[in-house]
Design a protein that fits this description.
Elements: E1 2-8, H1 11-22, E2 27-34, E3 47-54, H2 58-95, H3 101-112, H4 117-130, H5 138-153, E4 166-172, H6 178-191, E5 197-201, H7 207-220, E6 224-226, H8 230-239, E7 245-249, H9 258-269, E8 275-281, H10 286-295, E9 303-307, H11 316-325, E10 329-333, E11 342-344, H12 347-354
Parallel strand pairs: 4-7, 4-8, 5-6, 5-7, 8-9, 9-10
Antiparallel strand pairs: 1-3, 2-3, 10-11
Helix pairs in contact: 3-4, 5-12, 6-7, 10-11
């Protein structure tokens, strides 16, 4: 394995140099800005330096083989998910016979709105076992189901600076929207002139992610530091000790990549007092959702932010997440606009959506 550095006036220029010389198989290890001295020792405009690793012999072939193996594993994983889904639907069809006729309609509505059939069945069976529904009409039973769902979903948790500094980590899968979500929350607090905020990004795997957060930081006039390792992270957290809140953006991690998850563990363990927010994409299906949450089970405590709710077909994922994690919800996002496309989770509204009858069914 060989390591080489490339410098350019912009990240794009440095990337082009790297690709021209090493090709697309090179692996970016880090990106950072460097200062170049000019006449009389005066610094010129900062340059972007990319450190890349490459191997033009056996390692390149190994990477191709590993890529093939990964694709094969993903295919097997998807087949298992499909099988699990079919079994789940079959089981639901069989079990729904055991449910009281007065509750069957609610079960069908909840399932049509994205609630996992087993979760819907479990909640409604609890109602059936605890209450006598014989002498209750449809409206009364609906009120009972609503109240039960509201209790299950709990109260949302918002980010507040109850200690100083409050260190907030945003974690989640690649492409889930961590950086944009962080920017939305930070922007709202800046507009409210509520808290003194510092930003740290650990997402140095993607140059675009660092640049994106830099743009937000400049617009919001917030200090931003780029941490390449645990040492940098601790240094910048200490540097921002006068802040009310420190928002930390982490690199996206595949829930199927054990090494990436282990790396995230080490990063989180570097800061003792913190809050963690797991970002979950509202469009993922139940089996993938289960897999993601299981992979993050090493977290002692965390809260949930749901993104891309505007792209989801329904709101069932909220009840599915709560049933799997029993963690508090915080916010949900519904677009790319900063800072407006984010809201505190409204439990009452979600329950209304879960019990909303689809006239097209």
């Amino acid at each position: 394995m060989k390591i080489k550095k490339f410098v350019g006036h912009t990240a794009y220029e440095a990337m082009l140099k790297m690709k021209d010389e090493l090709g697309s198989d090179a692996v970016i290890l880090s990106t950072k800005t460097v200062k170049e001295k000019g006449l009389f020792g005066i610094f010129k405009k900062p340059l972007v330096e990319i450190t890349a690793a490459y191997d033009d012999n056996k390692a390149a072939k190994s990477l191709l083989l590993n890529s093939y193996d990964d694709k094969l594993m993903n295919l097997n994983y998807e087949l298992k998910e499909l099988k699990s889904l079919v079994l789940s639907l079959t089981k639901n069809k069989e079990n729904s016979v055991d449910l009281s006729p007065k509750l069957k309609n609610f079960h069908n509505i909840m399932v049509s709105n994205g609630v996992n059939p087993d979760i819907s069945m479990k909640i409604l069976k609890e109602i059936e076992d605890e209450l006598n529904l014989e002498n209750k009409d449809y409206k009364t039973i609906k009120r009972i189901v609503k109240y039960t769902l509201i209790e299950k979903l709990g109260n949302p948790k918002i980010i507040e600076a109850d200690v100083k500094p409050k260190v907030i980590f945003f974690v989640g899968s690649t492409g889930v929207g961590k950086t944009t979500t962080l920017a939305k929350i930070a922007a709202n607090y800046v507009l409210e002139n509520r808290y003194n905020i510092g930003l740290i990004t650990l997402d140095t795997y993607r140059i675009a992610a660092v640049d994106q957060l830099k743009v937000y930081a400049e617009i919001l006039k917030l200090p931003l530091e780029v941490a390449y390792n645990k040492v940098d992270l601790i240094k910048f957290v200490n540097k921002f000790s006068d802040k009310d809140i420190i928002f930390i953006d982490t690199a996206g991690r595949s829930h199927n990549n054990f090494e990436q998850i282990e790396e995230l563990k080490e990063i989180l363990n570097a800061v003792e007092r913190k809050e963690v927010f797991l970002i979950i994409d509202a469009t993922v299906d139940y089996n993938v959702l289960n897999s993601i949450i299981n992979r993050y089970s090493f977290l002692d405590d965390y809260s949930i932010i749901v993104t891309k709710i505007d792209e989801a077909k329904n709101y069932g994922i909220f009840l599915n997440i709560k049933s799997i994690t029993d963690k508090e919800f915080s916010y949900f996002t519904m677009g790319q606009n900063v800072p407006e496309d984010i809201n505190i989770v409204n439990i009452q509204e979600i329950v209304e959506k879960l019990l909303e009858e689809n006239i097209n069914d």
